[in-house]
Each structure stands twice: as structure tokens, then as C-alpha cells.
Amino acid sequence: MARDNASPTIAPDTAAAAETPRTEPPRGAIAEWTVTILLLLFGTTALVQAFVIPTASMEDTLLIGDHLLVDKMAYAPAGSVSKYILPYEEVKHGDIIVFRYPVDITQTFVKRVIGVPGDHIKIIGQQVYRNGVVLREPYIYHKAGFLDPYKDDFPSFAQTSGSAMSPELAPSWRDMLSNHVQNGEVVVPPDSYFAMGDNRDNSLDSRFWGFVPRQNIIGKPLMIYWSYQATTEDLTGNSIGSLLSHFGDLALHFFSRTRWSRTFHFIRGFPDSELPKGVTPQAPPAMPVRPSTALPLN
């Protein structure tokens, strides 16, 4: 896995095999535990897959070193009989999804769904507007301490600065900025999703490569089964030396660096029903403005 563009990804776990809310009720605790037991009993390929978070793009919701079980049947097409038995669901606002990176499908990313097909999305002064309504997003973090015109005023800065014409852009990115922007807003096309990391200042997400195709979605994180304080280098290095160093660190610090409070912690999205309606936009905090110079490292 390449380190530069892989920072907002989750890598396969080598240590372990005024909008109307949706009417579909959320899963309860009993249903979540039932699904977890079924996944553990009946397979780790078609139903569940283990991953580890190697970077900071979803902090503080998901931390570097969080080891996840990903529910691969959550968004699977419902069969005529199985739809009455298994908890299939549609991808919704606020869901955390695991998907194949559209620019390089050998990499796996994790992000939060901000826009579904038909949504109009724009960002002004770090505030996300969806269909004209500013979102209150209690899960996000801004840690850079400055405003980045590209990331924090999107897509207006990208359009006015001519970024959409840059030959360095991925085709999917260029297509989004050239063909899916209306009146200063990104319009999410059918079978596609606009996704961003919770660590908005340090996330390689839809602002930089475009939409997530529906067929790229693998599933949704179900639970953290283990969390260990490690570095990105520990989790992404593939040399013998880095592997030996990581296993040595585990042997010495397993008990002291395991985040026991996160063990068996269920991961839930943040549905529309939990977002207040009619939020009044607030002025962005006073901070210096710096131009974008490179893609995020995370």
C-alpha cells in the first residue's frame, strides 16, 4: 500500500484474519450483537472482513491502530427471501463506509457519507451545506489551525482557480468539477456518493478525487475488536525490518498500549434524525488562510 496517498485508507488487517429522515429504524444493540455473532460464526470473507486503521483521516471517530470488523452484507443487494432475514439497508447520510479507492481500487478507504444521489453539496468557511441547509456535524475535527481555500470553500475555489483543468487531477476528480457542479454546488449523480473524512483538514476524500461509485462500497464498520497505539509507519511498512519492529513493540507494550476502552466498541453512523433542522450558519473562526500546496498526507 503506497504511503503517500494511502493515509486516509484502511488496510487489510494483517494482525487478524430541511431534509426528511429515512423511515427505516436504526439497528438496536441486540440486532448489532446478533449480526456480530453471525459474522463470526459463518465466515470472514463473504460476510465480514477485518481491517486496521493506519492513518488519521477519520479522527477522532476512528484512531490509528483501531482494528475493525467490517459488515460486508449491510449494503448487499437484498434477495427475494434474504431481505426478510438479513438486515440489508441503503447507504444513508452519516454512514461510515469502507470502499475501494476509485483512483486505485487496490487501496481501501474509510469515510463518512455526506451526499447521496441527487444531493447538492458545497462548503463555505469549513461549513458543509447540503441542499441549502448547513449541517451541524459533531463528529468532525479541524486541527490545522488555518483555512485552506480549496478544502474549506469547495467547489467554488476549485472552479474559480481553474483547478478543474489541471492535468494532474484524476479523471474522476476532473469529471466531478467539470460536469457535476451547478450554481457553485456539487450535484451527486446516480449510484454515487460524496464522502469525507471526519478529520477535515487531513483527509484525502471526495474533494480531491470525486464520487464513490456504489459498486466500490465494500461495507460498513461494525465494531472495533481491538485498538492499539501505533504509528502509520508501523501499520503501513512492508519491509521485514518494519514488521519485526512492530511485532517487537507488541511483545513489549501489548497491555500498556492497547486502548482497552475501545475494545468491542460498536461503530455507528450519524443519521439525519440526529441532525438539528434549520441550523443558523456561524461565521468561521478567525484564522490565517493558506493556499493548498499538495494533497493531504492523511
Describe the fold and architecture.
The structure is a single chain. Strands 1, 2, 3, 4, 5, 11, 12, 13 and 14 form a nine-stranded antiparallel sheet that branches. The chain starts with 10 loop residues before the first strand and ends in a 32-residue tail after the last strand. Mean pLDDT is 79; it is low at 1-9 and 11-32. It has a single domain (11-274), classed as Umud Fragment, subunit A. The chain has seven helices and 14 strands. The protein is 20% helix and 21% strand. 34% of the residues are buried. With 298 residues, it is α+β, with helices and mostly antiparallel strands.
Q: How helical, in percent, are the residues?
A: 10-25%
Q: What is the CATH architecture assignment?
A: Ribbon
* Backbone structural class: alpha+beta
Strand tally, please? 14
End-to-end CA span: 13 Å
Q: State the shape.
A: globular
**On the 0-100 scale, what is the average pLDDT?**
79
Radius of gyration: 19 Å
Q: If you consult CATH, what is the topology?
A: Umud Fragment, subunit A
Low-confidence sequence ranges? 1-9, 11-32
Count of individual helical segments: 7
CATH superfamily (homologous) name: Umud Fragment, subunit A
Described by strand count, sense and barrel closure, the largest sheet is: 9 strands, antiparallel
Per DSSP, what share of the residues sits in E-state strands of 2 or more residues? 15-25%
Listing every helix as H and every strand as E from the N terminus to the C terminus, the arrangement reads EHEEEEEEEHHHEEEHEEHHE
CATH class (first level) name: Mainly Beta
Number of domains: 1
